[in-house]
Amino acid sequence: MWFFARDPVRDFHVGSADPEGGPPGPWVLHRGRKKATGSPVSIFVYDVKPGAEEQTQVAKAAFKRLKTLRHPNILAYIDGLETDKCLHVVTEAVTPLGMYLKERAEAGGLKDLELSWGLHQIVKALSFLVNDCSLIHNNVCMAAVFVDRAGEWKLGGLDYMYSAQGNGGGPPRKGVPELEQYDPPELADGSGRAVREKWSADMWRLGCLIWEVFNGPLPRAAALRNPGKIPKSLVPHYCELVGANPKVRPNPARFLQNCRAPGGFMNNRFVETNLFLEEIQIKEPAEKQKFFQELSKSLDSFPEDFCRHKVLPQLLTAFEFGNAGAVVLTPLFKVGKFLNAEEYQQKIIPVVVKMFSSTDRAMRIRLLQQMEQFIQYLDEPTVNTQIFPHVVHGFLDTNPAIREQTVKSMLLLAPKLNEANLNVELMKHFARLQAKDEQGPIRCNTTVCLGKIGSYLSASTRHRVLTSAFSRATKDPFAPSRVAGVLGFAATHNLYSMNDCAHKILPVLCGLTVDPEKSVRDQAFKAIRSFLSKLESVSEDPTQLAEVEKDVHAASSPGMGGAAASWAGWAVTGVSSLTSKLIRAHPAAAPAETNVPQRPTPEGHWETQEEGTDTAEDSSVADRWDDEDWGSLEQEAESVLAQQEDWSTGGRASRAGQVSRVGHNLDPKSESDWGSWEAEGSWEQGWQEPSPPEPPPEGTRLASEYNWGGSEPSDKGDPFAAVSSRRETSPRPDSWGDDNWEGLETESRQGKAELARKKREERRREMEAKRAEKKAAKGPMKLGTRKLD
């Protein structure tokens, strides 16, 4: 035998009618498990007794019928054993319906949705027996129905089944008085009225079953006249079943049709979902996509067991073999909430790992957006070897939405990354994004993310990276990025030595006190007061130095930055929604932010975004993912960049613009300058003392020569050169508030725009003339022979 029986559930003797339901006849139901897999099963045992030959023949007939009948709504046979002393029948794991209803009643009761689908399954099983097999069940009652772990109702109790065609004789004698109350009146009153239809008796018994499901055990046949708690939408059809005239009792198939009519008891979303899942293998791909998109909304009202044991396997199968793609992710993670940690590891995590290797952009961004739901179940080896290598490709994606979501996902992945991935690989990508990304909000979120994960970095990486990275952010032309740089310093204040605070951080923050944006100035003053307070306390009591600097050289710890986490809490929500709007409404507008200082935004507009707003907008972006023209984003960005004059010839944004126009007018020097992320201004340079910078070529304007909103040109060094090269070599302007910034800025912009327009027009005429000459001289151009001008 493959199975061992244990924990007997209930013993049902001949002549008993247990009110809770159970296997009819002299069967004993046990729970068991398959030795090979440990999967649960049910074992029905019948002991052969002397003098009970008739009952033994009935049990053997039931064994044979169960073994040969296969239908989704009939108890599934797995294995069996027949000897002279006993019969063993192994089936799928089930619970008697009476016991199931009692357990659910104690937990709050079954919903009408569940009852409607359960009755639908029993009627469908009867339809199969009567219409397809010409068999009369002859024993439909509470004791003949079982429920599996998914909540599916199964028809069993095949002991008294017989052929409707008269083969093998008439119905077997039951010998159980308690079962006779389920017999129709035409069989009990002795009036001689013949059963006109082969299904009439079983449909009467179905009416008895419906009464018992809603009202409890049937005390006597006369109680059927009172529907009791039967739902009003089901009462008319129930009355047809228990009518005295057998000719008017409907065929099981017609009964289903009537109940599925508009407004019927079985016309609901739960039944429709189950029917679709039963036929999902033959559905068209478009139908499957629509079904999975709508499924997530309905799962909250569906039973938990149904979601775990029926919906989840179908979702996994649809992803594995049906090419369902990203549409299964939302319902998959929703069902995953019903699983324990062990089940989640076995069923969901392997699928998630496989999804990360997908090249489908829609799937990648949905995975990143919903990472919070499954990150807790991922172990560190899996993250470092199977997840992170695929996620980092998002940093290089041409789509801004994927780059942004990849940055945000690092907040969740960072605690699980190893030394190499966190302190080397991730920092390399962050340095490139902060230096070259043309989207201002993405540069901003990169800075914010770095501030949040700073406590996880090693001491050497913190010392090398943080100060340089946040200093670089304070010189970004995108105002929220400058604020993020200040907040980054504040969030990681405990990771700097007093010497660094005095010589490296405060000089940077002081420069921001004259920033054109009031929000930047406000945060700068707040941070300055914080750092000055620390320096003053150490100055008053030098013995506090060790305590204040205890985290500077400490190993990485997730709790070190927790005290200041609120400093940067706004950026991932507020600026994220700004990015989403930017990508949705104006895909090509973002690159311009790199070249033009931002107008002051209404105070608190992007600084106090609610978390729920961002979640809704991110969800909206994901839902309309396929509606966006992603292929045109890069082209439009290049077009806008080509129309803007570089804001800093020696700065990173200028070079980022040149990189985005590779193949047009990229000179070898620019290409070589950006061949490696360790180029000038990289985080490794930090605040080390560099050699005096070489003078720029004649005519080159540094970023510091542009008027970013101040009254006079600033004497600050190139904001993207090594921060240590910044020294106060010339006095700052005495006053920054007397001149009209806006007038100068507007005048400068108009002049630049007019000059750029003339250059573009002149260039266009030159190109048209050259094309006309080539076309006239050489004729049609062959494939592969086009040359870049």
Question: In terms of topology, how is this protein built?
Answer:
Elements: E1 3-11, E2 28-34, E3 40-47, H1 53-68, E4 77-82, E5 86-92, E6 94-96, H2 97-106, H3 112-132, E7 135-136, E8 145-148, E9 153-155, E10 162-163, H4 185-188, H5 200-215, H6 235-241, H7 252-259, H8 269-278, H9 285-298, H10 304-321, H11 329-336, H12 341-347, H13 349-356, H14 361-369, H15 380-391, H16 400-413, H17 419-436, H18 440-453, H19 459-473, H20 479-491, H21 498-511, H22 518-540, H23 545-548, H24 571-585, H25 590-593, H26 611-623, H27 631-643, H28 652-660, H29 668-673, H30 741-778
Antiparallel strand pairs: 1-2, 2-3, 3-5, 4-5, 6-8, 7-10, 8-9
Helix pairs in contact: 3-5, 3-7, 3-8, 9-11, 10-11, 14-16, 16-18, 16-24, 17-18, 17-19, 18-19, 18-20, 18-24, 19-20, 20-22, 21-22, 24-26
